[in-house]
Fold:
Amino acid sequence: MKTKESARVGIVMGSQSDLPVMQGAADSLKEFGIAYEITVVSAHRSPLRMIEYAQQAAGRGIQVIIAGAGGAAHLPGMIASATPLPVIGVPVKSSNSMDGWDSVLSILQMPKGVPVATVALNGGANAGILATQILGATDPSLRQVIADYKETMRLSVEDMAKSVENS
Ligand code: RP5
Structure:
């Protein structure tokens, strides 16, 4: 498995077909300057690879795992079962999804004791932002990065408001 020594966030997905959604997480982390690694581990098709990833991530220096899957999306929950790290789950609307609710509920409805922080359907970008916020809880420079990001959003709303008001 190709891992990255400097990575603080691990992005995993159940299939390469999830990449267009999970690329959103990678892009957010890139934007915020967070080193990450990204790979495919399938809960159903490569369970041993998944367990190996989950069990070794913390020891390698990973601090947050982002896991995305579609359909019967067991990957985020199974990763969470085998690591002490916080896991952010990304439900993916994939070729085997009914309407996306199947992935959302598979990831969201975890039993007590094994939480997965679940973002919106196809919410890869938000997963990257949330991972940065988790790291920022103990890193003032990252908190500033997020504060700057929020200020940029606020200003964009001001611009939209002006544009709509003057139309
Ligand atoms: C899930 O099945 C994967 O996470 C993906 O969303 C879905 C479809 O996988 P492929 O058939 O495209 O490989 O396990």
Helices lie at 19-32, 47-57, 75-81, 101-108, 124-136, 140-165. The two ends are 54 Å apart (CA to CA).
